[in-house]
Design goal:
about 725 residues, alpha/beta, Rossmann fold, 8-stranded mixed sheet, 30 helices, RNA binding, SAM-dependent_MTases_sf, MeTrfase_RsmB-F_NOP2_cat
Length: about 725
């Protein structure tokens, strides 16, 4: 081992000064980077990090071994072995996995700098270290400099791992030389800290991750939104319109998804300890997945089934199940190759209250549209594997939505290579075209985390252009977004019928497209059919739909050659029609009591029977709209009142329904030359029947005629008034 002092490269005082400066710089850089473990510890009041358990170092070393960058043989500085380190049972713990992935990803971003520090500090090649421990040295060195080269605090209850203790002792013995090597590297790159050596896109990504709000959807199978609001309020959370730049205990409701709540990022540790999240009543998940399932929900009928492809997180499947809980829909999830996961998945879905999920072990490409299980599938939700460059926290994306840890390598460099992007786009195109081959499906929802057009618009447009038009089913077309557009920016981004969200301080980036089949011309639905369906579903409550009469049809034909009336005239006519219909309805309800009184009276002679049958005949509803209009506009008078006792009962009674068992006889036409003679032929009992009803004057109707007193002269009916002996013609 070489002695740094004998080489005269730096003095002990210079090293101490560098370490002091490095402590300040690293503290500021970590505050910008938004490291999850660091943020959680400082939020609880601890001034600095104290290290990880031994099992986390082992897991992180194995992850780094699989995702590290491999240099060309002539540039190899450190050789890594191929054998993984033995891990403990704690590796199955979700919290330990998250910490291990974060540590491995951080070491990956600074792999070149960490390797340079090991060479520059003379750890290599002066020290003989087995190759399979080099990955462990890299991840522990990153954590060592992250702790400002301070010793790790080890818990008494923690089980020690021999390999971890060996590497830790080695790094502690070289900590001064390692600190000096790091300082020289920072000066070489003219960087304020090693954080500023990263690509700008990676730095912006980590900055967004430190402030990105938390999104959680409400499990309405177990609790209502109102109950969630009340429970959060009892815990001290207040409902606000926006959680941006708010440091208090608040939450807001998302504008696109009514069942999604937004929380500030610093409240995650506190939220995980409340019962709402422990009992799966609230579930953390990225907003883009909620946008996808809500888009599918908007396209469903009550009994349509759904096929979900590449779901990633099982919470996405659960959210889709919750949204269709009141439907008869079934959700098929394909691609679960290991049947050993079935019990765990069923247990998870049972805890969340999901009952309509069926797991398919076939891959999506191997499924066929003729599969008898998929005959009722109408909507396919396709969540293809993508670069994911729209997300701010790559570790969350890998753990929740993707199983390919190799993508962390792309995240560390700010994006995938062109070859990798081409491979991903080709896979997405093949899956989308396969989804379009399901003949019974009527819609495909395509959603990605990517911001690259090669994975988004280009894939969709290519699939639409080269789709098979030879089948009997209708072709697919691009449909507008089914989600609300809440800002001018969203409207601008959706002008070409694609829904886009760019990465920002409040949300990750995502892309969403809806493909629907074109309408079959043979199944064209008229406006009347649409209104009839809406009325059947109760959507037109309070609005009556009437059929046009033959006279109205003739009027429509005659209007083809006439100039269009003004808007004010048409409005006046509509108001009159509405007023007339209202009067007709009120009159029919009022006169129902009068008809009951009439039919209960005994019939004493044949003349009365004849007159009664004439009245019954007049009960038939008239189809001539001129009759009520004429009666409404004609002022009543005593001569007219006396004569219309015989001629005009028909419009008044025409709305009363006849009994099916009665025989309706044709009316007896009598001459009108002698009004006095007509009055003498009508028996007095008829007038008694006519006066049995109420005498209230109906609006739009003539007043009920009264019995004339004896000896009072009755005036003749004016001959100028038109007569309608048969108004039903």
């Amino acid at each position: 081992m070489l002695d740094p002092a004998s080489k005269g490269e730096f003095s002990e005082e210079e090293t101490t000064e560098e370490i002091s400066q490095l402590s300040y710089l690293q503290l500021s850089s970590l505050a910008l980077s938004g490291d999850t473990a660091y943020s959680e510890k400082t939020s609880t009041g601890l001034p600095e990090k104290t290290g990880y358990p031994d099992s986390v170092y082992i897991m992180a070393a194995n992850i780094f071994q699989g995702i590290r960058f491999e240099n060309s043989p002539e540039k190899v500085l450190i050789k890594y072995g191929n054998e993984p380190l033995p891990s403990s049972t704690e590796s199955e713990d979700e919290s330990f996995q998250r910490l291990a992935y974060e540590l491995a990803f951080s070491a990956l971003k600074f792999q070149d700098i960490l390797e340079t520090m090991l060479i520059d500090s003379y750890i290599f090649p002066s020290t003989i270290i087995p190759d399979h421990l080099n990955s462990l040295i890299i991840v522990m060195l990153y954590d060592f400099q992250d702790r400002k080269f301070q010793a790790r605090l080890i818990s008494d209850n923690e089980e020690s791992v021999a390999e971890v203790l060996e590497v830790e002792n080695l790094l502690n013995s070289f900590k001064t030389k390692l600190a000096a090597a790091l300082a020289r590297c920072r000066i070489k790159h003219d960087a304020l800290s090693i954080y500023h050596i990263l690509p700008e896109r990676v730095r912006n990504q980590e900055l967004r991750a430190s402030t990105l709000p938390l999104y959680a959807w409400i499990n309405t199978c177990k609790i209502s939104p109102e109950e969630v609001y009340h429970s959060l309020k009892k815990k001290g959370y207040n409902k606000v319109k926006s959680v941006l730049h708010v440091h208090n205990k608040v939450f807001a409701v998302d504008q696109h998804c009514y069942d999604v709540l937004i929380f500030p990022s610093h409240l995650k540790s506190d939220l995980l300890n409340i019962d709402l999240f422990k009992d799966y009543k609230l579930v953390f998940q990225d907003k883009s997945r909620s946008l996808a399932v809500h888009s599918v929900k908007a396209l469903l009928n009550m009994d349509d089934d759904i096929l979900m492809v590449n779901t990633g997180s099982w919470y996405t499947v659960a959210h889709m199940s919750v949204l269709t809980n009141n439907n008869a829909s079934k959700i098929f999830v394909c691609g679960v190759q290991s049947q050993a996961k079935d019990p765990d998945l069923k247990n998870l879905f049972t805890k969340m209250g999901c009952k309509n999920i069926e797991i398919l072990h076939e891959t999506f490409i191997n499924l066929e549209s003729k599969d008898h299980r998929l005959q009722k599938v109408k909507v396919i939700l396709l969540l293809p594997r993508c670069s994911g460059l729209g997300v701010s926290n790559p570790v969350e994306f890998i753990l929740n939505e993707h199983e390919d840890t190799g993508l962390l390598k792309d995240f560390s460099q700010g994006g995938p290579s062109e070859d990798k992007l081409h491979v991903l786009a080709q896979q997405q195109y093949e899956q989308l075209t396969h989804a379009m081959k399901f003949t019974r499906a009527q819609a495909v929802v395509y959603c990605t985390y990517s911001v690259y057009p090669e994975e988004n618009e280009a894939v969709v447009k290519k699939a639409l252009e080269f789709q098979d038009h030879g089948t009997k089913v209708q072709s697919y077309r691009l449909s507008p977004p089914v989600l609300p557009l809440c800002s001018l920016k969203e409207i601008h981004l959706s002008t070409d019928k694609f829904f886009r969200m760019e990465p920002s301080e409040i949300t990750n980036g995502c892309f969403l497209s809806v493909l629907t089949r074109e309408r079959d011309p043979s199944e064209t639905v008229s406006v009347k059919d649409v209104l009839a369906r809406a009325a059947a579903k109760g959507l037109l409550d309070g609005i009556e739909l009437g059929k046009p009469s033959k006279l109205e049809k003739k009027k429509k034909k005659s209007k083809m050659s006439l100039p269009k009336s003004s808007t004010s005239d048409s409005r006046g006519i509509q108001m009159k029609i509405a007023e007339f219909l209202s009067q007709e309805t009120n009159a029919s309800a009022h006169l129902s009591g009068t008809l009951t009184t009439k039919t209960s009276l005994p019939q004493k002679n044949t003349n009365q029977v004849g007159s009664s049958s004439q009245v019954r005949k007049s009960n038939k509803p008239t189809t001539n709209p001129l009759v009520p209009t004429f009666m409404k506009n004609t002022p009543p008078s005593r001569p007219y009142e006396r004569t219309t006792n015989f001629v005009r009962p028909r419009p008044e009674d025409r709305m009363i329904a006849l009994k099916p068992i009665e025989i309706v006889l044709p009316p007896v036409m009598l001459p009108f030359s002698s009004p006095q003679g007509i009055g003498s032929q009508i028996p007095t009992q008829h007038f008694y029947c006519r006066c049995a009803g109420p005498k209230t004057v109906m609006p739009g109707y003539l007043p009920t005629p009264s019995i004339p007193s004896r000896g009072k002269k009755q005036e003749n009916l004016p001959s100028s008034l038109p007569r309608h002996p048969r108004p039903w013609l």
